[in-house]
Amino acid sequence: MFIVSDFDGTLAEFSTDPMNVPINEEAMRALDELSTLPGVRVAILSGRSLEHLTQLVDVRDEVILAGSHGAEALGQPTGPTQEQSSQLATLDAALDGLVHGGAWVEIKPFGRVLHTRKMTSGAEELQKRARAIEFGGRIQEGKAVVEFSVSDATKGEWITANRRPGEHVIFLGDDVTDETGFAVLAEGDTGVKVGPGETLATVRLADVTAVGDYLTSLVQSLRSGRE
């Protein structure tokens, strides 16, 4: 079994301060425990940079951490190419003229994220202008963010590349970027959508709290099946 979970909106609540998010400790304890079970692998697959992800989560070494939608993983140093660096410079120049009124830009190795959660007004108009930026990369909207990337990495590609033959995959996520993960799941796998919205997932949980309950129940189920 391969259990893969998104971080923000799945294991942690959203916050206006992305480095001070309320983390669901029950869910984290369950992931730690799951990683110790025979035949079970666990990963946290986030859109965050790997640097920020490792600063926020405190998990066993057995838990795989991957950032930037899978473009970054521990033990696999990577960085933007010269062409990608040029695209990022173009993007930075365009974003400099947009940021105001509580909006801010998160720097990632392979992209930038425009955050509008702190804005009291004008967020929709700012996001519209941001989506019109041309820099040669990919643009995707999320919850109160517009994400720009010079990498083609997706969560779906990471899951496909890292699953092992015969593994049952359980993937949990809450946002649009997680749909690429749900899309690659095979028959017998389980996609778990957290929160509202259209999805390819077959299971839906109400919120982050429900994720903790779900993972704890999974621990109990797997342990009882081994007794």
Automatic annotation (TrEMBL):
Root EC class: hydrolase
Catalytic reactions of this protein: alpha,alpha-trehalose 6-phosphate + H2O = alpha,alpha-trehalose + phosphate
Pathway annotation: Glycan biosynthesis; trehalose biosynthesis
Keywords from the UniProt entry: Hydrolase, Magnesium, Metal-binding
Biological process terms in GO annotation: trehalose biosynthetic process
Documented EC number(s): 3.1.3.12
UniProt cross-references to InterPro entries, sorted A to Z: HAD-like_sf, HAD_sf, OTSB-like, Trehalose_PPase
Superkingdom of origin: Bacteria
A Pfam short name: Trehalose_PPase
GO molecular function (one): metal ion binding
Cofactor: Mg(2+)
Function statement: Removes the phosphate from trehalose 6-phosphate to produce free trehalose.
NCBIfam families in the record: T6PP
Family: Belongs to the trehalose phosphatase family.
Name of the protein this chain belongs to: Trehalose 6-phosphate phosphatase
